[in-house]
Amino acid sequence: MSNNLEVVALVIGFIGLIGVAAVTGLPMWKVTAFIDANIIVMETRWEGLWMNCYRQANIRMQCKVYDSLLFLPPDLQAARGLMCSSVAVTTFAVIVSAVGMKCTRVVDHRARTKHIVLVAGGCLFLLGCITTLIPVSWTGHVIIRDFYNPLLIDAQRRELGEALYIGWATSGLLFSAGVILLCRHSEDKGSERYVYSRASDYTAYPPQPLQPQQLVLLPQPQPRPQPVLSRHPSSIYSYHSRHPSVHSGVAYL
């Protein structure tokens, strides 16, 4: 079950990476608003981070790259930097999460190392979510504010483009991937117990119920038989016969 959650989080994060790259490259951040008499004008204008595009009736869409970064409004200037950062962070998050999965053997196989890598991947996904949500929401706020600004003419008003909706959906995917990885780590931390050795290494053991101690009776050692000295007179006489000095001494006594 845990491995399936890791795979699901990685797939969601990869889809989020594709969405972040699409939002960064698409020019549909701001779209021309058709208001009142302008609805009969068959011309559409898109403004993105890198270019603006025009499309008229029965004419292929034409795009032009911005000549200078300073030509962009402040919201799009900030959005360009944040979206580039989001692409880099999300790419790194996908790589780190893939390395930290249990089914991979790229890093150390120890459980604590895997958990640290997964937590880092989840935090990177959340960081990618933030760096995507901020520019998309900021641009959407500027569009809505200018749309209801009475000082602007109708030709200056814009509507929310498709790239903004994709950006909001992508932020949700990145947030889901990060939360899944972090919750996965918290579950493992509560279900396993770590036993550390002298070399600062450890092994994860599942909790074991305590077993009552049993007394084991060891067999008592048997005493070894001692040799018995014979005190028969014949043995003494035979001994003295072999040793005359001892025999003489006995006779003298």
UniProtKB/TrEMBL annotation:
<feature type="transmembrane region" description="Helical">
    <location>
        <begin position="7"/>
        <end position="29"/>
    </location>
</feature>
<feature type="transmembrane region" description="Helical">
    <location>
        <begin position="164"/>
        <end position="183"/>
    </location>
</feature>
<protein>
    <submittedName>
        <fullName>Claudin 8.2</fullName>
    </submittedName>
</protein>
<dbReference type="InterPro" id="IPR005411">
    <property type="entry name" value="Claudin2"/>
</dbReference>
<dbReference type="Pfam" id="PF00822">
    <property type="entry name" value="PMP22_Claudin"/>
</dbReference>
<feature type="transmembrane region" description="Helical">
    <location>
        <begin position="78"/>
        <end position="104"/>
    </location>
</feature>
<keyword id="KW-0796">Tight junction</keyword>
<keyword id="KW-1133">Transmembrane helix</keyword>
<keyword id="KW-0965">Cell junction</keyword>
<comment type="similarity">
    <text>Belongs to the claudin family.</text>
</comment>
<feature type="transmembrane region" description="Helical">
    <location>
        <begin position="116"/>
        <end position="144"/>
    </location>
</feature>
<dbReference type="InterPro" id="IPR006187">
    <property type="entry name" value="Claudin"/>
</dbReference>
<keyword id="KW-0812">Transmembrane</keyword>
<dbReference type="GO" id="GO:0005923">
    <property type="term" value="C:bicellular tight junction"/>
</dbReference>
<keyword id="KW-1003">Cell membrane</keyword>
<dbReference type="InterPro" id="IPR004031">
    <property type="entry name" value="PMP22/EMP/MP20/Claudin"/>
</dbReference>
<keyword id="KW-0472">Membrane</keyword>
<dbReference type="GO" id="GO:0005198">
    <property type="term" value="F:structural molecule activity"/>
</dbReference>
<dbReference type="InterPro" id="IPR017974">
    <property type="entry name" value="Claudin_CS"/>
</dbReference>
<dbReference type="GO" id="GO:0005886">
    <property type="term" value="C:plasma membrane"/>
</dbReference>
